[in-house]
Structure formats: C-alpha cells, structure tokens
Amino acid sequence: MFSAMRVALIHDFLTEYGGAERVLLALHDIFPDSDVYSIIYIPENLPDEFKSWKITELGWSRYIPFKKRLYKYFLLLYPAAVEQFRLEQYDLVISSSYLWAKGVLTRKETCHICYCHTPMRQAWELYYQYKGFYAKNIPRKLAYSYIFHYLRMWDYLSAQRVDYFIANSENVRRRIKKYYNRESKVIYPPVNIDGIPLSDGIDDYYVLVSRLVPYKKVDLVLDAFRYLPDEKLVIIGSGQEEKKLRRCAPSNVEFTGWLSDEGKYRVISRAKALIFPQEEDFGITAVEALATGRPVIAYGKGGVLETVLPGKTGKFFAHQRTEDIVDVIRNFDPYSFEPELLRNSVLRFDKKNFIENVRLFVENSLEEYSRIYG
Q1: Model-level pTM?
Q2: Domains (ranges, CATH) in the chain?
Q3: Separation CA 67–CA 72 (nearest Å)
C-alpha cells in the first residue's frame, strides 16, 4: 500500500541518539524511501544508519554560532522555522515529535500523523522544574514566563494541525488529551529484544543509564550512595551536568561516559539492578534492562508503571528522595528475580510489534482520511 506513496518523516532535532531517534529508525524501516526532515542535523552524533538517508536540514541552521552547543537556546525561532519545510509533494507526513515537528504545514490532500513522544515538557509537565533550574533571578524568571506563555499557545495550536496522533504510552496519551484535547492511539516504542543478551550472572554493582541533565535526578542517586558505602554504582551516559556530577560523586560511583548499545547491554546484564530515578514518558532503558534479565528499581510514576511490575520485575520507591532510594536498596535482593521471566515480561515491546502496529494504524488512518477528504 505504501510503495506508491510519497512519504516524509519529520523529527525535531537529529543531534543525539536516544529513544526518539530509535523510533525514527523504526519508522524509516517501514518507509525506507521516505525523505527525512529535521531542524538541526549533527551527523557525527548519530549512528551510521542515518548517514545513508536523504535528510533535509533547515538551510539557515548552519549559520547558528557554535551550533553543537547552543542550538537549544534558539527555541523562539523554531516554531516559525519548522513551518518553512515545503511538504506539498507528499501524500503522507509522519512527525516524530516532542517539541516542534508536529507544527509542520501540510496541504489538504496530505495526511499528517504525529508519533508524539510527549507534549513539550518545558511548557507543560515540567514547566516549574525547568523554570527553577534555568531562571535563577527575577529578570530571567520574567523572560522565561513570557517566552513559555507564547510557546504554550503555539504548542496547543500546532497540535490542532495534526490529523491523527500516536502516543508512546498511556502516560503520554493522557497528556495529549489534557494539553491538546486530542485523542490518540498508544503504540509503545520499539525495543530490539532479540539483539539484547540475557544475563548469565550478577556482579557487585548497580547501574544507572541516563543523559546527565537536571530532570533525570541523577544527583538524588549520588546522594543515596553516600549512605551506601558498601554498594557500588556505575553510571552510563553523558550530558551537560557530567562535570558537576563527577565532582560531587562519592568514591563508590564510577562514570563510564557514553557506551555503544553492545557495551551498555553488557554492563546492565551483569548489574544487581537498573536504578531509574526520574519520571519518564515511557522509559526504553527500563525495558532494555528487563530484556537483559535484570530488575529495575524505579520512581513509581510515569511510563514505568506500564513496563515494570512491582514485586515481580522490580521495586518502586514512592518519592524522589534520597532516603526512599536508600531504603529500597538496603532491602533489595537481586537474586530473587529469574532472568528469563523478566525478559518474557517485555516481549510485547519488541520492534516487530511496533512495526506491525504502526503499519495497521497508518493504513486505517489513510482509509479514513480518504473517506473524509476524498
């Protein structure tokens, strides 16, 4: 059905490799001849698979000074920027969006489906957290308030341009309904279960895998391990807070930096458990840990409620507090979990299911769209 169609995939920023980019890879597997658009594209930060694609970046973005470090600070330009992509030639547009991509302009004959990773966190769900971190004085607080007042309006209005929404979790489906007043279909992000090795033993450490940014709450886990001197923590990842976190980390914490998927899975598969302190929209890392046969210790809110079964595949702590994390770890038995049972609990998130569900949703949406707009 799709072979004769002209398809475009739109993604916010192609600047790092995370869960949203894994979704884009899977979407491109479904539509291998599609053209890809992104506001910012930094190829050296991405796996080789992306380099063979036809990717169109905004022409003026190459003039952003120190683009690799500063592109996130030009957020007032991006609502208008994403509307400059010329998409008249396409029959189907699929936006992979957590910020701007859903705001593209399409003609009446073009069906626009948005795979929504989340409504804009900074403007809605995490507004006060981001404001507290980035706006430390009165002038910045005022600027932040007015900027995000404008962005909330644009975000809501741009969501009304989308014809059909896919949410990456039940958690995000509820947000789409609350903030956009739009219905959506839940299709979980893809995890390549077959490519993840099953644990063959446990070593003496816990593991945390995360971008090192404020809302990931890595600092809470560091504080917890100050009170757990006999336990070891390995942190996989990098980000803007890395230097600060390394400086304040206790001696029983080791940082590996960024690792390949193969290296990451090897470390996770030998850990006592994955520690997951943040509230995520979905949380692919928790699924990957369970796929290796290792349990998850998580903050019991957000996407993990759909992936981790408390007492069966992991443990939850109720509050994002140091003492709650310490209490769970002190009473945690890593040998009480059967690796194969943990892996079996996440088979429904396998990439094959994602591809099948997206294909079916797109087919049904196109049929309905054709009936409505002819």
Answers
A1: 0.91
A2: 7-190+350-373 (3.40.50.2000), 193-348 (3.40.50.2000)
A3: 9
